[in-house]
C-alpha cells in the first residue's frame, strides 16, 4: 500500500493513543526550543480564521491494537501534551485529547499523565522526568513573562486547539519504521515536500475503477504510471547540467522535483480562496496542495480529475524547461539570466503564452536590463568598487555570447561555473610595491625565478646574475633591475576591462601577482586537466584576439585594444557601441 498524507488539527487527535518504540530515546527538548514554540504560537495571527499554524510532520504507523507507532514526532507531541496539561490547570474545560505510552519506559507515561506542580520533586529520578520538568518550567516562565498569566495560557490553548494543524504522514508500504527513524533523526534527512505531495497524490481514494481490471489492479496501474513519470522527471533534474541551468544552488532543494512543485504551488496559492500566508514555511508547497485538494473536493471535483490536471501542469513545466535546455540560444540566455538572479518563476510566467519570436525578444530585453547601468565599457575599472559587479557580469555575458555566436556545439557549463568561486583577474599583473628589506627583495626575485623557469630561461639567468652581484641592498640598482623586468613583460598599471578576465579563484590565488607568461603556462596546463577555464579567458592567454601576435611574453597595448574591440563587437546587441542609454 502507498503511504498516505493529510493534515489534522490537534483537536482531531481526541482518543488517539501514541506508542513510542524502544529504538527512540526519550523526551529531550531544551528550554529554548520550548520558548521558541510558544513565541511562534503567540505571534501567529488568528484574525483570519482560515489560516492555520502548521507543525512539522508526524510520521506514524497503525498498530494492530489500534494505537499509533510514532516514527517521528515524539518531541512535538510530548511538548504539546505538557502545554495542554498546564492549560488544564487554568481552564476547567481544557483536556489533553491523546495519550502517550512507551515500549520500555512505562513510568514515563504515568509521569506525564499525572503531571502537576508536585511532579517537580521527581525531577532527578529519571532522565525523561528531568527534561519533562525542564519543559514545564520553561513554559511557566514564559507565561509569567506575559502581561496576564491566565490570559496568556488561554490564548495559547485556543490557538493550539482551534488553529494548529500537523502534517500526518502514515506509513502503509511495509517500510521498516526503525530505518525511517534513523534516516530522519540520525541521518538528519527530513521528509521533503515531494514525499508528502506524492503520498497526497497517490492515495487509493483518489482513483476510480474505469476498465475491466479489478479495482485494485486499476488503482495500482494509475499509481505506477504517476510514480514512473515522477521518477523520470526527478532523474532528469539530477543531470547537473540541466539542474544548474535552472537553479544557482546545487543543494537548494532536498528533492529536485520540489523545484517544480514550488513553482506550481506559488501559482496555485494565488488562486486559492484563502491562500497560505506563510510562504517561507518549509512545507509551503505541500500545504498549498493539501488546501487545494480540500477546496476542490468540497466543490465536488473528482479527485482523479484533480490529480490528472495537476500532474499535467507538473509535466508541462518539465517539458518547457526541457525545451529551453535543448535550444542552444535559449539555454545560454536563460542560464545567464538565472546566474544574474532572475527567477525561472518570472520567466515562465511571462513567456507562457508568447510566440517563439516574442520569447527570444523578451529574453534579449532581459539581458539588456542586466547591463543597462553601463554607459561605456571603457569606463569600467577594477579600481571602482561599484564597477566590479558589472565587470564580472559583462565578462560572463561575453563568454556566453561568444559561444552563441560561434555556432559551435560547445555550451557554457553553468554547473561547473556555479560550483566554483570566480575572480576578476588581471591578465597582466599590475605593478607591485618594491620590497624594502633584503629578505623581501630576495624572496620576490626567487618567486619570479620559480614562475619563469619553464617559460623564460634568459630572465631566470638575469635574475641569478643580479642576486649574485650583491646589489640587493642597493635600492636604486634594485629598482632599475625590476623596471627592466617590467619592460620585458609589460608590467603596467592598467585596471580597465581591457586587462581583465574571469578566472576561478583557486587558480588565480595560487599564482598571486605573477607575470603574463607564467599565468599563460598555468592556464594552458589547467585547461588540459579537469579545471574549467572560460572560453574567453583561454582566448586571451592564447592571444586569439590579436592578429599576428609578435610577443607571447606580455599583454601589451595592442593586445588590449584587440580584446576591447572583440568585446564591443560581441556585446553590441546588448551594449550598442559600448554605450547604453539610461532608462
Topology:
Elements (H helix, E strand, L loop, with lengths): L3 E6 L7 E4 L10 H13 L9 E10 L5 E5 L1 H17 L8 E4 L3 H8 L13 H19 L3 H15 E7 L6 H10 L6 H9 L13 H23 L2 H7 L11 H12 L14 H15 L4 H24 L1 H12 L4 H8 L4 H15 L17 H19 L7 H5 L3 E5 L11 H15 L4 H12 L6 H15 L10 E5 H7 L4 H13 L6 H7 L15 H14 L13
Helix pairs in contact: 1-4, 2-4, 2-5, 7-11, 10-11, 13-15, 13-16, 18-19
Could you explain the architecture of this structure?
This protein is an alpha/beta fold. The chain is 54% helix and 8% strand. Among the domains are: 4-191, no CATH class; 193-322, no CATH class. It contains 24 helices and eight strands. The protein has a six-stranded mixed sheet. Helix 7 packs parallel to helix 11. The two termini are 59 Å apart. Mean pLDDT is 87; it is low at 579-583.
Notable traits:
alpha/beta; two-stranded antiparallel ribbon; elongated; 8 strands; 583 residues; disordered C terminus
What's the gist of this structure?
The protein contains 24 helices and 8 strands. The protein has 583 residues and is an alpha/beta fold. Among the domains are: 188 residues, no CATH class; 130 residues, no CATH class.
Secondary structure category: alpha/beta
Across the major sheet, the strand order is 1-6-3-4-2-5
Helix content: 40-55%
Overall, the morphology is elongated
Largest sheet: 6 strands, mixed
Using DSSP, what is the number of strands?
Answer: 8
Number of helices: 24
Low-pLDDT residue intervals, each spanning 5 or more residues: 579-583
Q: Which radius of gyration do the C-alpha atoms yield?
A: 33 Å
Our measurement of the CA-to-CA distance between the termini, rounded to an integer number of angstroms, reads: 59 Å
The amount of beta strand, in percent, is: 5-15%
The average pLDDT value, as a whole number, equals 87
